[in-house]
Amino acid sequence: MSSSAERVMNMETDEMKTADFHYLRSAIWSLTGITLSDSKKQLIQARLRSRVQALGLGSYSDYSSLLQRLPPDHPEWQEFTNSLTTNKTDWFREPSHFDFLVKEFIPRWKPLAPKGHLSVWSAACSTGEEPYTLAMILSDAQNNRNIRSYRILATDIDTGVLHRAKKGIYHKTALSQVPQTFHKSSFTPGSGDISHLMKVQSDLKQNIDFRQYNLTQTPCPWTDEFDVIFCRNVFIYFSKDVIAGVLDTLYRAAAKDAVLFIGHSESLQGASKWRYIGPSIYSKGRVL
Predict the structure, then answer these.
(1) Fold match, 3-84 / 95-283
(2) CB 147, CB 105: distance < 8 Å
(3) CA–CA separation, 206 vs 128, rounded Å?
(4) Residue 41: which residues within 8 A CB-CB, separation 6 or more?
(5) Cα separation of 230 and 258, whole Å?
(6) Strand partners, 151
(7) Domain 95-283 carries which CATH code?
(8) Separation between Cα atoms, residue 27 and residue 126, nearest integer Å
(9) Cα–Cα distance between 269 and 267 in angstroms, integer?
């Protein structure tokens, strides 16, 4: 049996040592603010197995030792981060948020925005379903003359999911949550060997800027003020202190009458200047 095959077999049965788990858990917290409990040892082990194998290492201890020797700007740190971030997302997820945006926020925001340009930030955008959903909805609002123009900044810490998001190519079966009215207007179907794929049309993609950004970094590297911020299903991975820091960053980046959407299962834990409007919806100003 070859040495590489032996290493693969060893990795399938290798148990991560407690010291390695503590180091790796601390490392991902330092890099991203993500908090992992003791119960997540198996998750870390499963997600890092491919990195250990790809590097030709024999154990998680070898991988931990390698990371400890690497400089902060080494590419493996990004691979490590990509491996341990969770990228659960979907089209039109938590649809009440999009209804509120179109039916409640935009009509009240419109008289206060003479230029009619809506600036949106989709934080932790994952593989792109959220910003593309927003683009569909806002393009429809633009066609109905509710807004004149819009721009979406879509960010994520994971370079792997951003690469997929920029491509904008999805399997047809993944679009079951997209209303049929948007299928023809927003996607181009593949043909022949790729007939099972759908590509987001360029007129939607041109309104979205995909960029890598770590939400625990302060301040934001851009000067735009955002009217709408989606930062959903992110805070469930953060401690209260990290949540407070991220909320302050979002608040500083928001326009004076901005609205913030978080996940339905999340709470700001009273650690914010954002004003409560309703479940998972907050405002910076008094437009709502």
Answers:
(1) no
(2) no
(3) 14
(4) 16, 21
(5) 11
(6) 119
(7) 3.40.50.150
(8) 21
(9) 5
Whose CA is closest to 172, among 238, 91, 115?
A: 91
- For tokens 């901005």, the residue is 258
Q: Rounded to whole angstroms, how far apart are CA atoms 109 and 125? A: 24
Q: Per the omega criterion (within 30 degrees of 0), is the bond before 219 cis?
A: yes
Q: φ and ψ at 170, to 5 degrees?
A: -135, 150
State CA 201 to chain mean position distance: 21
Q: Cα(108)–Cα(89) distance, rounded to whole angstroms?
A: 29
pTM above 0.70, yes or no: yes
- HEC per residue, 61-114: HHHHHHHHHCCCCCHHHHHHHHHHCCCCCCCCCCHHHHHHHHHHHHHHHHHHCC
Digit-coded pLDDT (tens) for 6-23: 554 355 556 789 999 999
CATH architecture observed for domain 3-84: Orthogonal Bundle (1.10)
Rounded to 5 degrees, φ, ψ at 154 are -120, 120
CB 221 within 8 A of CB 209: no
Give domain limits for the chain. 3-84, 95-283
Contacts by residues 158-163 (CB-CB < 8 Å, ≥ 24 positions apart) = 158/81, 158/82, 158/85, 158/87, 158/126, 159/78, 159/82, 159/212, 160/82, 161/82, 161/85, 161/87, 161/125, 161/126, 161/127, 161/128, 162/125, 162/210, 162/211, 162/212
Alpha-carbon separation of residue 22 from 44, 52, 160, 274 (angstroms): 11, 17, 25, 34
Q: Is 229 helix (H, G, I), strand (E, B) or coil?
A: strand
pLDDT tens by residue, 153-209: 999 999 999 999 999 999 999 998 999 989 889 999 888 889 899 999 999 999 999
DSSP string, 2-22: -HHHHHHHHHHHPPPPHHHHH
